[in-house]
Specification:
The protein has 483 residues and is an alpha/beta fold. The protein is built from 21 helices and 13 strands.
Length: 483
C-alpha cells in the first residue's frame, strides 16, 4: 500500500510538471512498442543538434532507420554520456546509442549489438604545440572525457608516460582546455576529433595512421533485458549494410561540408550571427529555466516555511526533524541530489521519474532547506517580548505565531526570499547534467555543433546577467514597498 501511495504521488507530480515534455515525443501505435533510448547530446558526428536544433548524427540516423524497419517508436533522452549510460544500467532507459565503444568491462553490465562503426583513439595537441611524442607528456596534464573508451585508453598510458590527468563531462570544454594551454593533450575517438577540427577547433591529431584502442561502437541494453530490441537492431543493421543505406549515412556525416549541419560562417563567426541563427533555441532554453525557477522557488518557499515553523516549534520532535532535514539537504551537492533522484531512486521505487520532475524535486529539496534555515532565523529574530505580550493577552501559541510573529518575521525575510530566487535561477544550470534542456544545456548543444565556445558562452552569460539584473531591481522595489 505504501509503495502504491508513493507511485501515485510521483505520477501526480509528473502529470503536473512534466506532462508537456512528453507532448513532443513520438506516440506509439497500439501494436508498436515504444522504447526509451538515451544518448550523448554533444558527440558529433555521432550525436548532436544541427542548425535547426534537431538531433542528428550517425547514431540518430541508424536508430531512426532501425525503428522504421522494425516498426517501433522511441523516446530520445539526450544528456551527458555518464548519465545516459547509467540510465540504461539502472533500468531508466531501454537502450543507449552514443558512439559507445564495445569493451569487456561494459559487456559485464550490458548486452551489446554487433559493432556498427569501427574506430580508434587519437591523441591530440593544440596547433603549434611543442609536444611531439607521448614521451613529451611526462609531468604534463592530459584532459579526458569521463566514462569514454578514449579516457580508458588514455588512463592506461598514464604510468608509462608519466602524465597527470583531469576529467571533463563534455567534449567542448575538454577541447578548449587543450587549446587554451591548460592541458597539454587529450585522447579522443578519431571521427569525433576530425569533426571538431573540420569545424574550426585548433587542434592537431598526432597519430592519424596509428590509432590506439581500435574497436567497434555498439548499441547497448541492460544485461538480460530487451533481447527483442537488440535482435531488431542487429537484423536491421545487417539489412542496412547489405542494401547500402549504412554507407550513405556514414558518407552523409563524414564527407559533408560543415555548413550542412553547423550553418554558414556568418551564422557562427560573430556573437550576433550565433544569437540570431539560434534565437529560438535560446528562447526555449530561457523559458525552461524560468519555468524551473518559478515552480522551484514557489514550492521551495512553501516547504521552507514549513521547515522554519517546525524549527521554532515547542515540540522537540518537530524541531529535531526540521534541523535534520535542513542539515541533510543543505549538505548534499545539488548535482549529487539530482543524479540520486533521477537515476538512483527509480531503481529503488520502480518508477521512472521524468527529468523535469526530478529537477524540480531537486530544487525544492535543496532550495527549500536553505529557505527553511533563513525562515527559522527570521522568526527567531523577532523580539521575544512580542510572543510574551501576545501570550499575556490570552492568545494561544498557534494564534500568537500566526498573528504576531509570522507577519513580522516575513517582513524581515523579504530580501532573503528574493536573493534565494536569484540563487535558484542560477542553480537550474546544474540540472543540465540530467538532460533538462534549459539555458546552459542549450549553450552546450550549440557549442557541440559549431565549436564556438567563447561566443556561445558569452551570449549565455549575458542572458543570465540580464535576467538576474531584472530580478535584483525587482527585489529592491519589493523591499522598499514592504518597509
Amino acid at each position: 500500500m505504501q509503495k502504491k501511495g508513493i507511485i501515485s504521488l510521483l505520477a501526480a507530480v509528473a502529470m503536473v510538471f512534466g506532462l508537456w515534455q512528453f507532448a513532443s515525443q513520438p506516440t506509439a501505435a497500439a501494436d508498436e512498442p515504444n522504447y526509451i533510448i538515451s544518448t550523448d547530446a554533444t558527440y558529433a558526428p555521432f550525436d548532436f543538434q544541427d542548425k535547426n536544433n534537431q538531433y542528428v548524427g550517425i547514431d540518430m540516423d541508424i536508430l531512426k532507420e532501425v525503428a522504421k524497419r522494425k516498426h517501433f517508436t522511441y523516446t530520445l533522452k539526450p544528456m551527458s554520456f555518464n548519465a545516459a549510460a547509467q540510465m540504461v544500467a539502472n533500468g531508466q532507459a531501454d537502450g543507449i546509442i552514443a558512439g559507445m565503444m564495445i569493451t569487456d568491462e561494459r559487456k559485464q553490465v550490458y548486452d551489446v549489438s554487433v559493432p556498427y562503426y569501427q574506430s580508434g583513439v587519437a591523441w591530440v595537441v593544440k596547433d603549434g604545440s611543442k609536444v611531439k611524442s607521448l614521451e613529451d607528456l611526462k609531468g604534463k596534464t592530459v584532459a579526458l572525457k569521463t566514462g569514454t573508451a578514449a579516457a580508458t585508453y588514455g588512463k592506461s598510458l598514464q604510468d608509462k608516460y608519466g602524465f597527470k590527468i583531469k576529467y571533463f563531462n563534455d567534449t567542448d570544454t575538454m577541447y578548449n582546455d587543450v587549446v587554451n594551454g591548460n592541458s597539454a593533450a587529450t585522447f579522443e575517438d578519431m571521427p569525433v576529433i576530425s569533426y571538431a577540427i573540420k569545424n574550426g577547433m585548433k587542434l592537431k591529431v598526432m597519430n592519424p595512421n596509428d590509432l590506439g584502442n581500435a574497436g567497434g561502437c555498439g548499441f547497448f541494453v541492460k544485461k538480460g533485458e530487451n533481447a527483442q530490441l537488440l535482435a531488431d537492431f542487429n537484423q536491421a543493421f545487417a539489412e542496412m549494410k547489405q542494401d547500402g543505406t549504412y554507407d550513405k549515412i556514414i558518407a552523409k556525416y563524414l564527407n559533408a561540408k560543415q555548413s550542412t549541419f553547423a550553418g554558414d560562417k556568418k551564422d557562427n563567426n560573430s556573437v550576433w550571427g550565433i544569437l540570431t541563427s539560434n534565437k529560438s533555441a535560446f528562447a526555449k532554453g530561457l523559458w525552461e529555466t524560468v519555468i524551473l525557477t518559478v515552480f522551484g522557488i514557489v514550492f521551495a518557499s512553501l516547504w521552507g516555511l514549513i521547515l522554519g515553523i517546525m524549527g521554532i516549534s515547542q515540540n522537540k520532535f518537530f524541531r529535531g526533524l526540521a534541523t535534520t532535514i535542513i542539515y541533510t539537504f543543505r549538505g548534499l551537492p545539488l548535482m549529487v541530489l539530482a543524479f540520486f533522484i533521477y537515476i538512483g531512486l527509480p531503481g529503488v521505487i520502480g518508477v521512472k521519474i521524468p527529468a523535469f520532475t526530478a529537477g524540480l524535486i531537486t530544487l525544492i529539496l535543496n532550495e527549500g532547506a536553505y529557505t527553511g534555515a533563513f525562515v527559522r532565523g527570521g522568526f527567531e529574530a523577532v523580539d521575544r517580548g512580542q510572543m510574551e505580550a501576545a501570550r499575556s493577552l490570552g492568545l494561544p501559541y498557534g494564534s500568537a505565531m500566526r498573528k504576531v510573529i509570522v507577519p513580522q518575521g516575513l517582513k524581515i525575510m523579504v530580501p532573503s526570499f528574493i536573493n534565494q530566487f536569484i540563487i535558484t535561477l542560477k542553480d537550474t544550470s546544474i540540472l543540465s547534467a540530467i538532460g533538462i534542456l534549459e539555458l546552459t544545456q542549450t549553450g552546450t548543444l550549440i557549442v557541440a555543433r559549431n565549436s564556438q565556445g567563447f561566443r556561445v558562452w558569452a551570449i549565455v552569460a549575458a542572458i543570465y546577467l540580464i535576467v538576474i539584473t531584472l530580478l535584483t531591481w525587482l527585489s529592491n522595489w519589493v523591499e522598499k514597498k514592504v518597509r
